[in-house]
Amino acid sequence: MIQYTIRRIFLSIPVVFGILLVTFVLARSIPGDPCKAILGEKATVDVCERFTREHGLDKPIPVQFGIYMRDILSGDFGESIRFSRPVTTILIERLPLTIELGLIALVLSVVVGIPMGIISAVRRNSSVDVATMVGANIGVSMPVYWLGLMLAYVFALLLKDTPFWLPPSGRLSAGVVAVPFYEVWGLEVLPETLIFNFFEFFANMYILNSLITFDWEVFRDATKHMILPALALATIPLAIVARMTRSSMLEVLRQDYVRTARAKGVKERLVVLKHAFRNALLPIVTIIGLQLGTLFAGAVLTESIFGLAGVGRMLFEAITARDFPIVQAFTVVIAIGYVFANLLVDISYVFIDPRVRLD
Amino acid sequence: MSSVPELTPSKTDQDYSSNSLWRLTLRRIFRQRSAKIGGIILIFLVLVAIFAPVLAPFDPEQVLIGVEDVKKRESPCIHLLGCPEDRPQHIMGTDGNVRDVFSRVIYGSRVSLFIGFSTVGFAIIVGTVLGLLSGYFGGWSENVIMRSMDVLLAFPSLLLAIAIVSVLGPGLQNALLAIAIVSIPIYARVVRASVLSVKQQEFVSASRALGASDSRIMFVRILPNAFPPLVVQGTLGIAAAILSAAALSFLGLGAQPPTPEWGTMLGSERNQVFTAPHLVFIPGVAIMITVLAFNLLGDGLRDALDPRLSQEGE
Questions:
Q1: Single pTM value for the model
Q2: Which residue of chain A comes nearest to B38, CA vs CA?
Q3: Which of A64, B189, B204, B277 has CA atoms 20 to 30 A from the CA of A144?
Q4: Would you tell me which residues 134-153 of chain B have a C-beta closer than 8 angstroms to some C-beta of chain A?
Q5: CA–CA dist B19, B131 (Å, integer)
Q6: Cβ within 8 Å, pair A304-B166
Q7: d(CA A171, CA A306)
Q8: B116 contacts B294 by C-beta, under 8 angstroms
Q9: B170 and B259 in contact (C-beta within 8 Å)?
Q10: Would you give the distance in Å from CA A192 to the centre of its chain?
Q11: Chain centroid offset of residue B67 CA
C-alpha cells in the first residue's frame, strides 16, 4: 500500500515536470515585453537592461527554466506585476474561496447525484428514471455561466422580498465581518510567518471559520452567498455523477450475487445499498475524481458571474492583464492539485474494493 | 506472388463497405431513442444554419437605428401574440446595439456548428495519427506521445484553452485552435486503445506476412476498428467543443463582436440580466439545445456501436 503510494507519487513526477514545462513555455510566450509590462511603457533602455539582468531574463531559456524550477520548489512564486505583492500571499487570499466553493459543489453533486442515480437504476424506466435522465442530459448540456446568470435573475430579482431571496454576488453582506478564528481564540501570530499563512488560509474559508468560532450570523450570511454559485457549479458534475451511478448500478444489479442475495431473502434496501452499491462504487469514484477539472474550469466562470474573488477569476484576470507570475503559479497549483486528487482516487480504490490489487 | 496481397485486401475492403453492415448499424442506431431525438434536433439545426438567410428577417450585424423605430434592448414583440401592430416585430427583441436578436440567434447556429465540426475534425485527425503511432510502434515514441497527452490532460481543459488563447491572442480562429489542441488527448487515447486491442490479431499478422507496409496496416487494417469509439467520442466531443468555445467567447477570448456567436451575445449582455433577461436567456437556450442534440446523439451512438461503454448497462 505505502509502497504503491510512493511509487505512484514518483510516477507523477514526470507529469508534474511536464506541467511546469508547459506553464513555463506558455507564460514565456505571452506576447509583450515583460520589462515594459512591469515598469511601464516609458521605461528607458538602461532601466530595462538592468531589469532584464536582475530577473535573469538575459540568460538562455534552459537556464531560465532552471531558475524558475528552483524558485517554485522553494515555494517562491515571485511577485505579481499588477499588485506588486508576493504571489503566495495572493494565493492564500484567493485559494480558500475556490476550495470552499468547489467542495460545496462537489458535496452537493455527490449527495444528490448518487441517490438519484441509485433510484433511477432500481426503478428503471419508471417516470422517476426518465425524469432524472432527461434532467441529467439537460444538466450536462447547460453552460455554467448561463445557469449562474439565470439563477441570479430568479433568486435575486424575481424572488425579491420573499424568504427565498438570495444575494447575486459577493461573499458577505455589507457590514458583516468574518473575524479570523485565531483572533477570536486570542492566538498571537506574527504576520508573514508560515504559521500565519497557514492560519490565514483556513480563516479565509468563511463558512469553516464561522463554524469553528460559532459566529452564526457570518455563517448564515456566508452560506447564503455561496448557495447560487455552488448550485451553478454543481449542475454538470451532479448530472454526470447521477448518470454514472445509474449505469454502474444497472451493471451490478444484473450480477449473480445480487440474485443470490435476493434469493436468500435479504431485504431489498440491503441488497441495493450493501450488495450492489458497494460494488458499483469504483467507476463512480473515478468519475467524481475527474469532475475536479470541471469544477476548477467552472470556477473561472462561476466566480466571474457571482463577483467572487477566487482563484478562477484571478487567473482569468491575470491572463488578460499579462500578469504572468500569477498565471504560472495559479496554473501550476491547479494542475498539480488535479494530478494529486486523481492520485488519491486511485489509492482509494483499495479501500472501496479489496479485490483491487495495487501493483 | 504480387497478385496475392492485391486480392486479399480488396475482398476485406468490400466487407467493410458492404451495404448490409451499414444498414444493420443504422438500424441499430435508430432503435436508440436518444439518438433519434438528438438526430432530429441536429437535422433541424443544420437546416436552420443552411437556410439562415431565408429565415432571418434581418442581417445579423445590421444596426437598426434609422431603419426602424426601435430602441436598444427592446423586449420581444410578436404581433400574433398581441404586440401592437405599430411596433416593429422582433420576436426575440433587440440587443444593446439595436440588432435583431432572432436573426443573430439563427446565424449563430452556423458559427456553432462550424466550431463543433472544425475543432473536433482537427483534433480527431491529429489524435488519430498520434494514437496510431504510439499504439502501433510502442517503445519510446509511445512513451513520449502518451506522456505528453497525460500532461495535456492534467490541466482542466478550459483553463488550458484560456492560456493558449492568451498566447495566440483572442479571436474565434485561435479559440478553435486552442479547443482543438486540448481535445487531442482523448482521441489519441481512444485510437491507441483500439490499436492495442487488435494489433496482435491474426488479420494484422496475415497482412504483414503478405508484405503490407506499416502505414497500410495502420490505416487500412487497424484504423477501421477504431471508428466506432471515434465516432462516439467525436459526437460527444462536438458538444464539449461548442460549450468550451461559447465559454471562451463569453469571457471575451473567442469570437469577437459583431460576430453572431451565442457565447459572445451572452457575454456582451451579461450585465443586463436584471433589466433585459431575454438577451441572456435566449442565446443560452440556443447553446443548450445544440449541445443537448450532440450529447443525445453521442449517447445513442455509444449504446448502438459500443455496447461495452453503454450507459444503459446492457
A1: 0.86
A2: A137
A3: B189
A4: 147-148, 150-152
A5: 29
A6: no
A7: 9
A8: yes
A9: no
A10: 26
A11: 37
